[in-house]
Amino acid sequence: MIRSSGVLLQQGGLAAAGIPAVLRHSGAPRGSVYHHFPHGRDQLVAESMQWAGERVTGIFDRLTAELPAGEAIEALCGFFADRMERGAWANGCPVATVVLETEPGAPLMQIPRELYQQWTDAIVGALTRAGAEQDLARPLAMTILAAIEGALVMSRAAATREPLDAISRHLRAAVDAATAHM
Question: Is the pLDDT of residue 127 over 90?
Fold first, then answer.
């Protein structure tokens, strides 16, 4: 149900990830949703975002363990572009869809805040390990994350990987410049 909710969030936001749709998509029996998620849809959505966030963090951690920081950022953009292209541009970021559809003060917004902080911290860690100065690493990490999220939206809207490919090259150049003194 968590995976199904995540997929539905990516494809259509909160409206698409209602309990009946999640049950249809997952094939789970109706009673199981309230057994596993006694607080209803918000709990399911929160756990879906956390699941998706952990997947992205795992992919980024793997890439930064295998590649220099600039190449890892470029590979992450390529991963997202490939995934969107394979999905016929239907898949966006499940976290961003929730942010755009949820009131700023709503309890559900805590999860996106935490995930964006976690992703920013992961990028900062990769940048500082690669030699970037701490005072440059955090703003650069936030720029990287904002650029990727924006390019995901633009790629989906235009049904092309061009925005992700474009930022990929520029972000790699910025990361390489920030870590060049190593």
Answer: yes
